[in-house]
Design goal:
Helix 4 packs across helix 5. The chain has a single domain, classed as Nucleotidyltransferase, domain 5 (2-Layer Sandwich), CATH 3.30.420.10. It is 35% helix and 17% strand. The C terminus is likely disordered. By secondary structure, it is an alpha/beta fold. The chain has a five-stranded mixed sheet with strand order 3-2-1-4-5, sandwiched between helices. A two-stranded antiparallel ribbon has the order 6-7.
Length: 246
């Protein structure tokens, strides 16, 4: 069973984007002072964290009339690469394992076993009857991230990487140029994709950085090394010592 995430990134304007550039030393990058709106572009993205594969399409706009046909086309191609649907409803292949609706168990008798999990946010267009029914008939379970929890969709993470590589420090002149750069970046990413996982090397680096800090009581402050504590003489030593008695 494959797990994919979907998201629509953007819009990105055809204007100078901040960031490093490949300017020769002594010749800093110069951006025009005029603010000219050169149009915007969005990036439709499907991402498979287990392999790092990205399926993307730059578009001018992303209404349901654009998103749903592309999504159906890509999901059909993904299903063609998946193993055949299982004949028995094992754990994880039942809709009731993923859908917590009161009548979810009835779906096990009405729709095919689960073949693909599709993680996406809870936009109104994703909840439309047409796309949900289309997915159900093909064994695709849509899993919606909660409000304020879109970070649970790894697709947003890979989109930030792709957009940064395509546009950072650049000045696209038109929306078509933005789309061409985004498409080229997706192609370059798929030449050597990086799988994503929760608690990976990036998380471990952040955890090591936290472990090197020492929290101070009473505030959110911390130190890079532990604060030495002063040791007080024991009470017994003070009372029973000869110097104290004298």
């Amino acid at each position: 069973m494959q797990v994919w995430g979907e998201d629509e990134a953007g819009p990105y304007q055809a204007i100078p984007h901040p960031g490093p550039s490949w300017q020769p030393m002594g010749e800093p990058a110069r951006q025009p002072h005029e603010y000219l709106r050169g149009g915007t572009a969005k990036l439709l993205t499907l991402f498979r964290p287990a392999t790092g594969e990205v399926r993307g399409k730059p578009v001018d706009h992303a209404p349901n009339t654009v998103l749903h046909p592309w999504l159906k086309e890509q999901l059909t191609a993904i299903l063609a690469q998946c193993p055949p649907a299982p004949t028995e409803l094992t754990v994880g292949r039942r809709w009731s394992d993923w859908d917590y609706h009161a009548e979810a168990r009835l779906l096990d008798e009405q729709v095919p076993p689960v073949r693909v999990l599709l993680v996406w946010d809870n936009l109104k267009g994703h909840l439309s009857h047409d796309i949900v029914q289309w997915c159900a008939e093909r064994g695709i379970v849509p899993l919606y991230t909660p409000l304020g929890g879109s970070w649970l969709n790894m697709t947003e993470s890979v989109q930030r990487i792709l957009v940064r590589r395509a546009l950072e420090g650049q000045h696209p002149q038109t929306a078509d140029e933005v789309k061409a750069w985004l498409a080229a970046t997706v192609e370059g990413w798929n030449a050597a994709p990086t799988p994503f996982e929760w608690g990976g090397t990036r998380w471990r680096r952040r955890q090591c950085a936290r472990d090197r800090r020492h929290a101070l009581g009473g505030s959110g402050a911390c130190t890079r090394r532990a604060v030495a504590r002063q040791r007080r003489p024991s009470v017994a030593g003070c009372v029973n010592g000869d110097d104290h008695e004298k």
